[in-house]
Amino acid sequence: MKKSLTQRIGLGAFGVVVALLFVFPTYWMITSSLKTPGQVLSPDYDLIPSAATLDNFVSALTKPGFTTYLANSLIVTLGAVLCSLVAGVLAAVPLSRMRFRGRKGFLLLVLIAQLAPFEALLIPMYLLMRDAGLLNQLPSLLLVYFAATLPFTCWMLYGFVNGIPYDLEEAAMIDGCSRAGAFRRVTLPLLAPGLVTTSVFSFITAWNEFLFAFVFMRDQNKQTLPVWLSSFRTAFSVDWGGIMAASVIYAVPALVFFILVQRKLVSNLTAGAVKG
């Protein structure tokens, strides 16, 4: 009993230390955003600001182009997530439920596409977009993010569909449902937690992407929030307080999206447990 209690205390202390290590950078970012430039650059850095100010947030929110960049990020990110979920479901269900020649090879190609470094595709995709006349257009960036998130979405949803017994669909079809009706009434509701989980990772991947948005969108009115963050750094100075405040603002939409889908995920899991 004493040994077990000691182990639990040790694991709990270790967990607290790891949690603090992960939380501290976020705390540093928030506290730095509330300081004046002199306080941020001071060698005697205070972990708790003595005099907080919102000037950095005001300057970040009033910086030219913020609303445009925010709208562009939301459009391409949410559009890419929605398209990848639809295409992922349409690919994952046949791969899981049907047996056809080349199925395992296709799954292997999906995995290889996920493992490939996306930056290696920058030049070929740039040349392709240039020849197609799609540079400086939001649909082209949405298409890039869709291609970036689709392999992961297919692979994840394939695993979730495999975890749903096919007997449930067969029982629905015996009761008079068509194959499409059985999928819509039985499989799709049970697949909701997988859709939510996959959407979170896809959203984070598309929301944080910087390189393709910077290279493809040379027009400032078509750029996204990660590119906007880089505007706080010039050749002569760096507005560290502004960068920290902008980073806090930048993290808010992703946090809100995660909170919304987390509630949906928990409710779906609870409902499935009760029904089971």
From TrEMBL:
Location in or out of the cell: Cell membrane
InterPro entries per the UniProt record, alphabetical: BP-dep_ABC_trans_perm (IPR050901), MetI-like (IPR000515), MetI-like_sf (IPR035906)
UniProt keywords, alphabetically: Cell membrane, Membrane, Transmembrane, Transmembrane helix, Transport
Ribosomal protein keyword on record: no
Domain ABC transmembrane type-1: 70-261
Domain of life: Bacteria
Transmembrane segments: 9-30, 69-93, 105-129, 141-161, 182-207, 240-261
Topological category with respect to the lipid bilayer: Multi-pass membrane protein
Pfam families reported for this sequence: BPD_transp_1 (PF00528)
Keyword set includes Transferase: no
Family as reported in the entry's similarity comment: Belongs to the binding-protein-dependent transport system permease family.
Protein name (record): Carbohydrate ABC transporter permease
Organism: Amycolatopsis speibonae
